[in-house]
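Side project, low priority. Logging it here so it doesn't get lost.
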Amino acid sequence: MPLLINGKFVKSASTAPGVPVRNPATQELLATTPIATAGEMQAAVDAARAAFPAWSATSVSNRARVMFKFQALIRQHEEELAALLSSEHGKTIDDAKGDIFRGLEVVEHACSTMSLQMGETTAGVAGSTDVHSYRLPLGVCASPTLTPTPILAVSLAPTRTLALSLGRTPSPAARASRPSTSPP
């Protein structure tokens, strides 16, 4: 299983044994997830940091469009994603589709990023004091996760960039990251 760093799939330089990903029903070896080196992790963080200025300058409406495209791609590839989840987790296809549905709910929430990005104003909080809040870009976030879809959606929509560790079930996330089928 290659690493995805700065939009490119790269073979890990790690000499550590990778983490085997097995079908729990058959014990068939499906993939080996590499243990990224410190340099590879830093390269991923640096790539996310370099992407941050352009992504944070992207209009809220265009970020929402990326989330809508992500949602459409998940729906379009639901059967394939369910098969991957089933083989890696030992779930039934229907149970895997339920996981995908729950992930889609988070993506749908991220599609409302335009309203989520609104700040707040409260007049007369104390005497002649008004309170204003602004939602501003945060920067790079990192997340080790076994369920990448919700993390991607809620991290990317509100002007963050993300360095993500995929853990022991990498195939659905790797499938979602193929350039021909994933948002820019």
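Brief comment: The mean pLDDT is 79.
Revisit when time allows.
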